[in-house]
Amino acid sequence: DVEQDASSLVLGDMNDIMTGDKLVDPAISPYGYVMSYSSWCSILRNSKTKNQCPFTKQKLTRRSLVKLTVDNIEQYKDEIVNITEEEAKKFKL
What string of H, E and C letters represents the secondary structure of the chain? Predict the structure, then answer.
């Protein structure tokens, strides 16, 4: 799948920080964090974290997420925030 290959070139074997699984349907927040779109939706619908970025605690809605595709990955690749191992441990579901 060409679309998967293009995002894989930039995202590599990046895993979803919430699930630990390989990223599926990656989406980037306005703050530069990337997770699978389904993980973002789960977090943004949760009553404790509703419409709030789990990393920055700033307002975030599903509409403000951008799904990363072969057509836009180049535009967003420099905005991606890298998460440290320590930070990752705090966010596992």
Answer: CHHHHHHHHHHCCCECCCCCCECCCEEECCCCCEEEHHHHHHHHHCCCCCCECCCCCCECCHHHCEECCCCCHHHHHHHCCCCCHHHHHHHCC
Residues in Cβ contact with 82 at an 8 Å cutoff, skipping those fewer than 6 apart:
none
> pTM for the full model?
0.81
What is the sign, positive or negative, of the torsion defined by CA atoms of 85, 24, 78, 30? negative
The residue type of 72 is: N
Beta carbons within 10 angstroms of residue 58's beta carbon: 11
pLDDT reading at 37 higher than 70: yes
